[in-house]
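Exercise: predict the fold of this chain.
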Amino acid sequence: MTESNWHKSTYSGDNDNCIEVADNAPGIVRVRDTKDRARGELTATPAAWTAFTAFARSRAL
């Protein structure tokens, strides 16, 4: 398996609530918590991730 190239998501902003995204998995969105990497990662299809983020934005305070 190829080593993942993780980077901080541009949507994380300048606070301590950050996620990282792996950019070397074509057709899969891979995210993990920057502060708790040992918990693993969440994977989704690009369509499912887009639907999730749209839902999250619609519920933002």
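Check your answer against the key: The mean pLDDT is 84.
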